Amino acid sequence: MPYAHPEYLISPAELAADLDNPTRRVLDATVYLTPASRGYRADSGLAKFKACHVPGAQFLDLVEAASDTGTGLGFSLPAVSQLESLFQSLGVDNDSEVVFYSTGHMMWATRAWWLLRYCGHRNAKVLNGGFRAWRKGRHPTTREVSPPPAGNFVARPQPALFADKEAVLAAIGNPGVCTVNALSPDVFSGEGRMHYGRKGHIAGSVNVFYDDLMDHGIFKEDAALRRALDAKGLLDAPRIIAYCGGGISATVDAFACLLLGHTDVAVYDGSMAEWVRDESLPMETGP
To answer: Domain tally for the chain?
Structure first.
């Protein structure tokens, strides 16, 4: 059984076969994480992009250019006008097909995809398997960067694609909302060494580890994805709110739900980094 929306993904072979398409924009959204005592330190992937990337690609800076850096939280959702200007600077037009990829984990590509979708652009894809799969397929790479002409993209924001902490708090105990934590089971349970200041997870949330939705960085087939999400009740829930540590890996779970045809999915942008700061917000430990 194919995905409900296979058009949200593109394989390396498919991209390579039509790489010179003038209406396509390819964007590398790579970020590198270094573990810290609480969470991670994020570093831009720009230097490695300059050394090697998909021909014709531009670099999308998620750390600063696509974030509100004044909140004290990493990767905070910026103003729509900031995102609109950013995508225009990367050559995105209203009718562009935009392909996102990342080196390392796919969550950076899905975060970038989610941001563009939030801005109302509907023709976007994630390179399945990312840059590693591209190189494994022996497809061409380059160091050359040719800035594109400014695009004419006009944002039409879709606010339902993000949730704030008030919406997450209101969802606790609401049978119409399934709140899902995308972090590893040991972080979710509070048993792991890594945490965000308070151990455990948002009260009432379930756990679908983002990495369990992939095999070696490639999204699992429809049936396997459906089993993983159905096991925690996601696909039967009228609304899904996905969260993680900072709104990044949550986009993998959210993307997978849309891939399978769910129509009401949001990402809690502040995620654990914001939630743990308020001691009045309920948390739980255990599986």
So the answer is: 2
